[in-house]
Amino acid sequence: MGKNWSFKMLMENMIGSKLKIYNIRIIDRGLDDYRKILQLQHELRDKRHEGKIPNTILIVEHPAVITLGARQSANKLTTSREDLAKHHIDIVDIRRGGGTTAHNPGQLVFYPILNLHELGLGITEYIRELEAIGIELLQQLGVQSQRRKGFPGLWVTECGLGASCVVRDASCVVRDASRVERNTQYAIHDTQSAIRKIASIGVRVSKFITYHGMAINIQNDLSIFDYIVPCGLDDIEMTSVMKETGKCHSMSQIKENLIKLLHKHFSTQKENRRAFNGCATRLVKRLYVKRNRNEQRNRNPMTKTLLYGNPTTNQYRRKLPAWLHRPLPADDDFRHTEQVLRSLGLETICSNANCPNMGECWARGTATVLILGNVCTRNCKFCSLTCGRPAPPDPTEPGRLAEMAKQMRLKYLIITSVNRDDLSDGGAAHFRDCINKVRQQCPDMKFEILTPDFRNCQARALEILREALPFVFAHNVETVSALYPIARAGGNYQRSLNLLRMAKEVYHDVQTKSSIMLGLGETDAQVEQVLKDLRKAGCDRITIGQYLKPSKKSLDVVEYVIPAKFDWWKQKAIELGFSWITSSPFTRSSYFAEQQNTL
After folding, report:
1. Tens digit of pLDDT for each residue in 402-461?
2. Which of 157, 245, 388, 421 has the fewest Cβ atoms within 10 angstroms?
3. Would you say 431 and 415 are in contact if contact means Cβ atoms under 8 Å apart?
């Protein structure tokens, strides 16, 4: 009887000897100051060069900081250093390769202090090892990432029909011991891709010893990248594991997985790894039948294109009906609104929720401002906002909001926010401060606030907001009660109704407002019951619109409701006694909210 070979036995038999293992010391620094860690890297680098310590890798998360690399042309900020200081964001000039990047809590950073000569690695091979570690780690978290030729780091590419992607003006972020930079111009033209960067690499090597390293966006607040042009690459969107998957993860568990990968990639010499990988390849050839060569040759062009971005899926986008197509924004009014918002560092629900009306509304000089950050404490499946741990309220935000209203000469301002279950008042005091600050500069301004449900603090929140009256008080029920467990697991249908009822009782003459989406699989009877429940709670205004999937991870559209059906629902709402109604496929809570009469 033949010998029963295990995979390990086969590998040892092929290699002929055990692998040479090098000692690696891995230190988890938790959340630590960037400047402090930078000084520690320099000290460890010198000790490693002198042979006083083994190869060492620091794992860390940083408080908010922006770093500028050695390549000045790639150091691009979208705001001033003074403005960054106001937002409590540190800025550090360093000598690693590449351009501007940013770190904040929820981003996993590791700094290898390694002797490349001992490991048998060149600089380019070292970069490939870092990328391989990131690819494997992200795959464990449900994200398929890939390299891009000429662009160190990792990218997520979503392929879909009719999309295109161009990457411009990138450069290699590696500097060797002789401080020679290698700049690489490269353009990607793929008719099916939309690209996002999820991990950045910036390293230096001095006398064969590495320092600086790799940053992977796990569940950090991505708004920090709005203050920079990441790595000097224009028009590149930054993403994170949370944004791609909609899931929160344990950073401790992720660090444990990373440690295993670091040992796997950096505890053996290059020749040993080559022997191991070569034998593994030969073993796979022995154990599995080769794929038919004609399979690739006969695969049709559509399948090839779809598999380019995600070889594990073969999904087609559902075609939008004609009434849901809209032209792209391009006029001067749109660009002016965009410039004002960006210059003041303000978020909008328009851009964060991928609203289809953004072009039309911004062209009219209106926008719905998103306060309290763009990281939500809940993970509703109809929404594209990031779920995670938000930053504390920014005390400068009310002043910036007032300046926006003044510059745009607004008469009607809509303010909304993410859910802030981490705050004892749910963010109500910040709503109040924003309204009162704007009124100081624009006394005739009319307001509409679209609030979260103030879980566990409804009475307190409404009392705080009393100091900012008058305004239209809006809170969206979003969908029918039966779909809450699927679409809005963090919410509660009765709690939302209760908030609207309490607001009407507390504020008396204030108009209350809500909104519902169609197309998630609700029935007509369920929609009508929502309208009746809202009227019973004293709700005066209602908006009804078509649900459109805002991101890859959001719920799929079950039905595209025809425009005539929205007209029918408007008549039904009139019969039930609503005094202000908008109902159409593109209607959203804030759509034409400034109109006084909609009947």
Report:
1. 998 888 888 888 999 999 999 999 999 999 999 999 999 999 899 999 999 999 999 999
2. 245
3. yes
Q: Extract the tokens encoding 506.
A: 């507390």
For residue 509, what pLDDT is reported?
87
Indicate yes or no: pTM above 0.85: no
CA dist 486 → 241, 296, 403, 480, 523 (Å): 21, 40, 40, 11, 15
- The Cα 418–Cα 396 span in angstroms is 18
* Distance set, CA 136 to CA 27, 126, 164, 254, 265 (Å): 21, 16, 27, 12, 11
Angstrom CA distances, 455 to 92, 404, 590, stand at 40, 30, 22
How high is the mean pLDDT of the chain?
A: 79
Cα distances (angstroms) measured from residue 169 to each of 94, 183, 410: 21, 9, 38
- Beta strands per DSSP E along 419-499: 446-450, 472-474
Q: Which residues of 430-441 are buried (b: 16+ CB within 10 A; e: fewer)?
A: bbbbbbebbbee
Q: Tokens 């001067």, residue?
A: 332
Tokens 């660009």, residue located: 335
Q: Are 539 and 509 in contact (CB under 8 A)?
A: no
For tokens 């290698």, name the residue: 182
Parts of the chain belonging to CATH 3.20.20.70: 336-583
Largest Cα separation within the chain, whole Å, is 93
- Which regions of the chain carry the CATH code 3.30.930.10? 21-158+171-179+193-281
Q: What do you get for the CA distance between the two ends of the chain, in Å?
A: 87
Q: Could you read off the pLDDT of 540-594 as tens digits, one per residue?
A: 999 999 999 888 888 989 999 999 999 999 999 999 999 999 999 988 887 777 7
CATH architecture of 336-583: Alpha-Beta Barrel (3.20)
For strands 107-113 and 209-217, give the pairing.
antiparallel
Residue 507 phi/psi, 5-degree rounding, is -100, -5
CATH topology of domain 21-158+171-179+193-281: BirA Bifunctional Protein; domain 2 (3.30.930)
Using CA atoms, how far apart are residues 145 and 147, in angstroms rounded to an integer?
7
Q: With b meaning 16 or more CB within 10 Å and e meaning fewer, what string describes 40-58?
A: bbeebbbebeeeebebbbb
Q: Amino acid letter at 445? A: M
Beta partners for residue 414, in sequence order: 368, 448
Distances (CA, A) of 371 to 376, 428, 451, 510: 11, 11, 10, 22
Tokens of 39: 């000084």
* CA torsion angle 218 222 224 226 (round to 10): 140
